[in-house]
């Protein structure tokens, strides 16, 4: 893996914020670095949707879903997922629930080719983004990760970097050059629900924000490259109830613009935010698998499998 391309302008003419002291090492794994040369930012078939208040346009391309087919996973010889198949519908929120250790995070990392970064890790099966096989030999992991972004459990903005540069770093890490960085930053902050709080504080360091704001900053960073899919691994588990609610509102606002897959341990949250839900289980040392998936309402109100009923009613896990 190489560093982000040097061709990226450090502080373009349109940069609201000028240069900041960039801290290149986030505490947690940030968006994976880009590989290969920079690309021009060329949104596909894109509708420019300028809202009534003259806000910058939101780039809304065609919605794309994800489909996992018979996905199995190993760490060394330890098999942790067994033939997981799941359709994550375009422009909807799919929640992954299940007890700790049943492979939810592993499954999520397989969806954007991060699992293969773990030494000794391997997998089988297929993942389709729309009709594209993300594991086709012609696909570069960095290109896949640009289309399928990730937000982690613990907010991981670059702490010494400004709010503006944190968002713009999403572009830099993906090796994307844009003509109007200010617009991308503003749009991404609006989409993550942070613009109103932050537009006068674009030069503040990311580390000075509250935990909930930092997580929305990470969402903005992930959105800066206009991904088709946003993966979120327990994005609220480190946050207080108010910040959690705010993130849930952001998820609701993003639904219909981007396909979202969220891992959550909070059953109320799964019910509030998701349209569809998949229940994972790894019983008695067997690899994780999906017991049941379908519309969230059905999983919670009329589950087919008694283990699903026990889990969603808090009887174990
Ligand atoms: P969940 O997110 O549902 O809690 P994980 O996907 O994190 O589950 O873990 C699934 C299984 O894979 C667990 O048994 C865990 O110990 C194992 N595992 C996770 N990450 C690694 C790793 N980097 N190396 C080895 N084993 C791992
Ligand atoms: Mg996990």
Model description:
With about 325 residues, the chain is an alpha/beta fold. The protein has a domain at about 45-155 and about 230-310: Rossmann fold, CATH 3.40.50.300. Helix content is about 30%, strand content about 25%. It has ten helices and 14 strands. A six-stranded mixed beta sheet has the order 9-11-12-6-13-14, sandwiched between helices. A hairpin with a 2-residue loop joins β4 and β5. α3 (about 165-175) packs parallel to α6 (about 210-225) and α4 packs across α6 (about 210-225). The longest helix is centred in the C-terminal third of the chain and has 14 residues, at about 240-255. The protein starts with about 40 loop residues before the first strand and ends in a 5-residue tail after the last helix. The structure holds adenosine-5'-diphosphate and magnesium ion. The site of magnesium ion has 4 residues, from α1.
Shape: globular
CA gyration radius, whole angstroms: 19 Å
CATH architecture of the domain at 47-157 and 229-312: 3-Layer(aba) Sandwich
Mean pLDDT: 85
β-strand percent reads 15-25%
CATH class of the domain at 47-157 and 229-312: Alpha Beta
Helix content: 25-40%
Main sheet: strands, sense, barrel: 6 strands, mixed
- Give the strand tally: 14
Structural class: alpha/beta
CATH H-level superfamily of the domain at 47-157 and 229-312: P-loop containing nucleotide triphosphate hydrolases
Which parts are unreliable, with pLDDT below 50 for 5 consecutive residues or more? Answer: 1-52
Which strand order does the major sheet show? 9-11-12-6-13-14
CATH topology of the domain at 47-157 and 229-312: Rossmann fold
Succession of helices and strands: EEEEEEHEEHEHEHHHEHEHEEHH
Give the helix tally: 10
Bound molecules: adenosine-5'-diphosphate, magnesium ion
